Structure to design on (98 residues):
């Protein structure tokens, strides 16, 4: 019985390290710092990283805690970049090589 309990406690310990690493990375800090806090402080490490304020241009501030960029946010920038790179006509190089 103690073996199963130890296994579940190890899973909880590793999950706390993963979550602390994720939170620290989203807040603009090193994921290593979050991993170390999660491994050393266990569940308290997660609480510590939730209390630390995020950096101004971090993913935590710009996108959110769990979100990711929406297609509407990415598509206009990608289209503008494609238009900037598409100054030369593509058919002209084919005609010259044929």
């Amino acid at each position: 019985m103690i073996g199963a309990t130890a296994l579940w406690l190890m899973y909880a310990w590793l999950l706390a390290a993963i979550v602390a690493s994720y939170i620290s990375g989203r807040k603009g800090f090193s994921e290593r710092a979050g991993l170390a806090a999660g491994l050393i402080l266990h569940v308290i490490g997660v609480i510590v990283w939730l209390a630390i304020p995020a950096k101004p241009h971090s993913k935590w501030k710009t996108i959110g805690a769990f979100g990711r960029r929406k297609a509407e946010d990415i598509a206009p920038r990608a289209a503008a970049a494609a238009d900037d790179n598409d100054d030369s006509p593509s058919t002209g190089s084919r005609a010259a090589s044929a």
